[in-house]
Amino acid sequence: MVKMKMQRLDKKQETKYALITGATGGLGKAFVRALAKRGYALLLTGRSADKLQALATETMEKYAVEVRYYPADLSNEGDRYAMMEKIADENFRISLLANVAGADVQKGLEAYTQEKIAFQCRVNFEAAVCMCKFAIEHRAERLEIVNITSVSGIYPMPYFAIYSALKGALTSFSVSLREEMKGKNVSVTAILPGAMPTREDIKEQIQGQGLWGKLAVKTPDEVAEYSLKAVRKNKRKKIVGFWNKVMRVSTAWLPTGWRLKFIAKRWSKISKDAF
Ligand SMILES: NC(=O)c1ccc[n+]([C@@H]2O[C@H](COP(=O)([O-])OP(=O)(O)OC[C@H]3O[C@@H](n4cnc5c(N)ncnc54)[C@H](OP(=O)(O)O)[C@@H]3O)[C@@H](O)[C@H]2O)c1
User: Fold this and answer.
1) What is the pLDDT of residues 66-78, one digit of tens each?
2) Residues near 90 by Cβ (< 8 Å), separated by ≥ 6?
3) Whose CA is nearest to atom 41 of ligand 1?
């Protein structure tokens, strides 16, 4: 009996476990594919048990890897702790954490409810930080953390203000954490994607951007592959795609007032919600 338990523990220690938040979304599924192809055993989270179950079944059939799933609303502390407790009870040692979950509410502050402000802050920042802490405490000999932020976090964005501030905060946090973890076998990389055609509303938005949309867009699979290579090299932060880098450099010299006016004009025409 003891021998069997020890064998199971040895097997767990050999297996590389990757924990993915937002696994059921467009980019999350791309991480699932990329990591399954690399032979990782997967620990998946998202809110919907049905979606997670379907994804787990499909992934196990296609890639023959171990997949576990933990439904949890990351904006809810209780859900989060329960999910962490289940993973900790199983004694999984985490080799890679991909913080992918995000909620992109887009509107002016006046149009928000208090509840939605809290929801967005918790999913986009608080949960990602708590997941980093959890993964560090339950890490394998070596741990890689990929935090998905956004190019939106580079500049203040009127009418997308909360999202861009939170993505900027997550980038800043990741860069600091990377420094704190130096010499401890933990890599932390912030990935700043531009547009990715994941949901229908985002696809329409990209189409509406004409030539820029075509140039700047990257598929979720490209972003996931790029992220895994970047964290393997322990990069600090990476903007995804040549044209997004060009945009960053070419707009940096613009007076702040002009930039804000341009962004406000553009984003005030779009309103979208997430719960
Ligand atoms: N798509 C883009 O153009 C783009 C650009 C830059 C950055 N990003 C960032 O990339 C990440 C993935 O984006 P995506 O386009 O793949 O989004 P998506 O398809 O909408 O997926 C979002 C994921 O987050 C999960 N999620 C949302 N709220 C949650 C909550 N309260 N608790 C637990 N999970 C929650 C969703 O799970 P359930 O709904 O199943 O619960 C889903 O798996 C996000 O962080 C986003 O901000 C996206």
Assistant:
1) 999 999 999 999 9
2) 68
3) 47
